[in-house]
């Protein structure tokens, strides 16, 4: 954060707050810079909202909930229909902003937004998603049915690595279910998120139904403790996610917290060699490794260890450059701090005795000498006690372990505390069935390196990668954003009344 220079004198775009349907300049005296990771150019300013501004946003959402919860389903889904059309038509423009502030390549930025857009499209199915259950005549003249009703003000805290997709995982599903929402985007790259929010307002989201505040820990803690906030969705680091879950739960909130990962890809010798190698390189180094579902660990089983030189050769062909440059495969990492952390962990791997087969620390990009670039990096000879295996590096670093059998590979993956995603590469149906049955990871890919499900299913990370029972989007998030009310009803006709019954049984 840098508040030394008054933001007004910089003549830079500022991230506005959205409160009660109006985009407003913050009164905060604390501001941060939005920095292009490829150039270090400051491209915008973001306020750290005041306590009064956060209170105002939550109060606005609370007031709006009284009317929005009673807005017909059809009206709510028509807002989503218009919103998805606006996002689709403005995708290229928003992707350019996203690339400038986050660093990922333009095609990957478009993919970031598109995967979020798929959730918006699914939100248009709210009519069937929110249906309850009904049973007629469960006892003499008694019917029982359930209602799915909104829960109130919900909050979302989103990470820097997907400023398009993750906000679109959250607020569309929350508000289409009849809730109101307060969004806190990452303070590192909020500009593309705000462009999506502007389109949501253009689509007809009423004042107060969607609000946005910016900031750091103070804002996060307010959202976790405010009595009017009923539920919190979080995606980000394990450290912050654990804090959000514990603090929010302590204050009676529903919390879903998607956190860190160490995703493995297990390769059997019978796998399709070239398709597997291409998948491993793309999943390991795409988005500069800054995906919570990145394949950061490759487990070579048996003779597949002979593929290692080809894996290195393919990684060497990737082009490192600024994200907006044509043909770029790997853009910069998010910040100088991220760069220092990644290169520091690489050095730890070297000191621990792992074999550094490909070193991306000294990559040079002509014209972007100040960029936060780390090239594809590959270690072999890695043991499970090394920091490059135990820690989520969140950079373009892949570590390779070798085992003799599928059983050993399964045991290795299951010993790791994280459980976001895992992949198996094989042409054996029997091996695949054994793997998906015995592996203790929430999301499994068979010949797919990044098994993020389509929005009709829920994101189901597990163990150390997730706190809370219900995941983002899909059927689970409808359960998260609604409460079930069960009604048991009996209607009497003109039949003469029976006597008093003091038993619990229904008649």
Can you summarize this structure?
The chain is an alpha/beta fold and 507 residues long.
Walk me through the structure.
This protein has 507 residues and is of the alpha/beta class. It folds into two domains: 234 residues, Aldehyde Dehydrogenase, Chain A, domain 1; 183 residues, Aldehyde Dehydrogenase, Chain A, domain 2, CATH 3.40.309. Helices cover 36% and strands 21% of the residues. It contains 16 helices and 22 strands. The strands form six sheets. Strands 14-15-16-13-12-18-19 form a seven-stranded mixed β-sheet, with helices on both faces. It has a six-stranded mixed β-sheet with strand order 9-8-7-10-11-21, with helices on both faces. β8, α7 and β9 form a beta-alpha-beta unit. The N and C termini lie far apart (67 Å).
Keywords:
7-stranded mixed beta sheet; disordered N terminus; Aldehyde Dehydrogenase, Chain A, domain 2; Aldehyde Dehydrogenase, Chain A, domain 1; 36% helix; 507 residues; single chain
What would the CATH topology of the largest domain be?
Aldehyde Dehydrogenase, Chain A, domain 1
* Low-confidence runs: 1-9
CATH hierarchy: architecture of the largest domain: 3-Layer(aba) Sandwich
**How many strands, which pairing sense, and closed or not: the largest β-sheet?**
7 strands, mixed
> What structural category characterises the helix and strand content?
alpha/beta
Query: If you compute it from the alpha carbons, what radius of gyration comes out, rounded to the nearest whole angstrom?
Result: 25 Å
Helical segment count = 16
Helix content: 25-40%
How many strands in all?
A: 22
Amino- and carboxy-terminal Cα gap? 67 Å
Q: Strand order, biggest sheet?
A: 14-15-16-13-12-18-19
InterPro entries: Ald_DH/histidinol_DH, Ald_DH_C, Ald_DH_CS_CYS, Ald_DH_N, Aldehyde_DH_dom, MeMal-semiAld_DH
EC number: 1.2.1.27
Family: Belongs to the aldehyde dehydrogenase family.
Organism: Cupriavidus basilensis
């Amino acid at each position: 954060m840098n508040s030394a220079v008054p933001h007004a004198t910089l003549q830079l775009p500022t991230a506005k707050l959205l409160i009660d349907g109006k985009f407003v300049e913050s009164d905060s005296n604390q501001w941060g810079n939005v920095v292009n990771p490829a150039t270090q150019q400051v491209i915008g300013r973001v306020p750290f909202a005041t306590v009064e501004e956060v209170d105002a946003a939550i109060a606005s959402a609370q007031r709006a909930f009284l009317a929005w919860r009673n807005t017909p389903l059809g009206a709510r889904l028509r807002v989503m229909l218009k919103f998805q059309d606006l996002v689709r038509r403005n995708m290229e423009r928003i992707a350019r902003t996203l690339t400038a502030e986050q660093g990922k390549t333009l095609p990957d930025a478009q993919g970031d937004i598109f995967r979020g857009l798929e959730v918006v499209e699914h939100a248009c199915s709210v009519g069937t998603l929110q249906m309850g259950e009904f049973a007629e005549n469960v006892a003499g003249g008694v019917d029982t049915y359930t209602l799915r009703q909104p829960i109130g003000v919900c909050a979302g805290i989103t990470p820097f690595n997907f400023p398009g997709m993750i906000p679109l995982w959250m607020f569309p599903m929350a508000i289409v279910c009849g809730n109101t929402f307060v969004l806190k985007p990452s303070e590192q790259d909020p500009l593309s998120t705000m462009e999506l929010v502007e389109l949501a307002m253009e689509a007809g989201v009423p004042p107060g139904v969607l609000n946005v505040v910016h900031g750091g820990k103070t804002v996060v803690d307010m959202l976790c403790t405010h009595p009017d906030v009923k539920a919190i969705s979080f995606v980000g680091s394990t450290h912050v996610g654990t804090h959000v879950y514990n603090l929010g739960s302590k204050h009676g909130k529903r919390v879903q917290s998607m956190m860190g990962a160490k995703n493995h890809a297990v390769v059997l010798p019978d796998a399709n060699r070239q398709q597997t190698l291409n998948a491993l390189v793309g999943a390991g180094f795409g988005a500069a490794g800054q995906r919570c579902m990145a394949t950061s660990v490759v487990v070579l089983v048996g003779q597949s260890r002979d593929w290692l030189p080809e894996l290195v050769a393919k990684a060497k062909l990737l082009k490192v450059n600024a994200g907006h440059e044509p043909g770029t495969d790997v853009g910069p990492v998010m910040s100088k701090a991220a760069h220092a952390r990644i290169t520091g962990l690489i050095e730890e791997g070297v000191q621990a005795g792992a074999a550094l087969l490909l070193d991306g620390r000294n990559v040079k990009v002509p014209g972007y000498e100040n960029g936060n670039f780390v090239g594809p990096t590959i270690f072999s000879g890695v043991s499970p006690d090394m920091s490059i295996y135990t820690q989520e590096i969140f950079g373009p670093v892949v570590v390779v372990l070798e085992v003799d059998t599928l059983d050993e590979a399964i045991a290795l993956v299951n010993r790791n505390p994280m459980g976001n995603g895992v992949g198996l590469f094989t042409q054996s149906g029997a091996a695949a069935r054994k793997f998906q049955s015995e592996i203790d990871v929430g999301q499994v890919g068979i010949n797919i390196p990044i098994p993020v499900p389509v929005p009709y299913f829920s994101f189901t990370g597990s163990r150390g990668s997730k706190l809370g029972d219900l995941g983002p989007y899909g059927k689970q998030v409808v359960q998260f954003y609604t409460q079930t009310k069960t009604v048991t009803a009996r209607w009497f006709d003109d039949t003469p009344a029976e006597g008093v019954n003091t038993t619990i049984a229904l008649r």
